[in-house]
Write a structure and sequence with these properties.
heterodimer, A: about 150 residues, alpha+beta, 5-stranded antiparallel beta sheet, about 25% strand, B: alpha/beta, 4 helices, globular
Chain lengths: ~150, ~110
């Protein structure tokens, strides 16, 4: 019985976090997601990849979405069938051309010494990355990473 | 985020510590540039031994310093990259541009001899 209860919790759990677009909050965001993901018993490597992808998405919201002006970043995480889903959302300037932004080494802000690798890292470290953006309205990045195969979790 | 610097035969060695993200990089960039100016951009070694986390902002910091040092005819090398960071270094292709050494000593030697 106790085992069944634990599994039910593991299959559907979520958390939400919202914070101002200050760079201090980049570490808060990735540490919160990493702590939330611990219930799936990830490997050290999986946790590093997850933290890095979250850090990239939140940094993009702060630097590019809000262009270092004050705004709100919303983070949503859910666990579903051994995978973690992360959504990072801002109400910032949006991305005019998502395909262009996805190109490795592309950056809209070369003066900030950005490497242009943020989205490439998200795509390599997560299993799925979907970027929805409306110029002038904001950007929503949805990412998913399988932590444990269903057969191992249940 | 913290850093510790020392100079070995004119080569600036920076030992980075903590988490290298956008927030940390904003503060540390100017500190490294100040130290580079004092040593006339002769050579730079960045040690990652104390880095627990790094994202693409760290890559930007490395490439920025690489441009700044090589633009003034100096040399640069990286060393002591921990296993946790290896994937991001490999994925970025940065090691094709900036050489990586296992130890600080060999990185300093390579920069000095170059």
């Amino acid at each position: 019985m106790a085992q069944d209860w634990t599994n039910a919790v593991l299959q559907e759990n979520y958390m939400r976090l919202q914070f101002p677009s200050r760079s201090e909050n980049e570490s808060l965001a990735r540490v919160a997601v990493s702590a939330f993901a611990m219930q799936l018993d990830p490997t050290v490597e999986q946790l590093t990849e997850l933290k890095t992808a979250v850090s990239e998405a939140v940094t993009n919201a702060i630097i590019h979405g809000y262009e270092n002006m004050e705004g709100e970043v919303r983070l949503y995480c859910a666990i579903h069938e051994g995978a973690i889903e992360v959504v990072v959302e801002d109400d910032g300037s949006g991305i005019a051309d998502v395909e262009e932004a996805r190109q490795p080494l592309y950056t809209s802000r070369p003066e900030l010494e950005r490497s242009g690798m943020g989205i490439t890292i998200m795509e390599n470290f997560m299993d799925e990355v979907v970027i929805d953006s409306i110029p002038g309205k904001g950007t929503k990045v949805r990412m998913r990473k399988v932590i444990c195969r269903t057969s191992e979790c249940q | 985020m913290a850093m510790e610097t020392h100079i070995v035969n004119g080569v600036l060695v920076v030992r980075l510590r903590g988490e290298l993200d956008h927030h940390a990089v904003e503060n540390i960039r100017n500190d490294i540039e100040d130290e580079l100016a004092k040593t006339h951009y002769r050579g730079l070694v960045l040690s990652f031994r104390g880095i627990d986390f790094m994202d693409s902002s760290g890559l930007g910091l490395i490439l920025g310093r690489y441009r700044s040092v090589t633009g003034r005819n100096g040399k640069m090398a990286l060393c002591e990259v921990t296993p946790a960071l290896r994937r991001i270094f490999e994925l970025s292709g940065i090691l094709k541009v900036v050489p990586m050494h296992d130890t600080e000593d060999s990185a300093v030697r390579a920069v000095k001899e170059a």
